Amino acid sequence: MFGDISGMMGKLKEAQQKVEETKVRLNSVLVDESSSDGKVKVTLTANRQIKTISIDDSLLSDTEELEDYLILTLNKAIEKATTINENEMAVAAKAGMPNIPGMDMFK
């Protein structure tokens, strides 16, 4: 009914390997973001791991303002990293998927 089952299983293993390789590669893809005035700068990997945070000294005296800056800047960086991550993972998953009738959700 589905044709060559062993061939499909091989394709699925290949897809899984591609996804794992992509995850590893995304650890080296860096996303930089900064506040509109440049007082806070963050760097994340495309897997959404924070690598660096740089804070201007002028923000150190006002905790509430610093928190606001961090939240806004980190959220923007996470959004960018998530977009990159999702796009790359979709490509990796699609590349190795076997052609199963009715399973065209990756197209």
UniProtKB/TrEMBL annotation:
It comes from the Bacteria. InterPro entries: YbaB-like_sf (IPR036894), YbaB/EbfC (IPR004401). Keywords: Coiled coil, Cytoplasm, DNA-binding. GO terms for cellular component: bacterial nucleoid; cytosol. It is found in: Cytoplasm, Nucleoid. GO terms for molecular function: DNA binding. Residues 5-32 form a coiled coil. Its main location: cytoplasm. Transmembrane segments: none annotated. Binds to DNA and alters its conformation. May be involved in regulation of gene expression, nucleoid organization and DNA protection. Belongs to the YbaB/EbfC family. Homodimer. NCBIfam families: DNA_YbaB_EbfC (TIGR00103). This is Nucleoid-associated protein J3359_03885. It comes from Polaribacter cellanae.
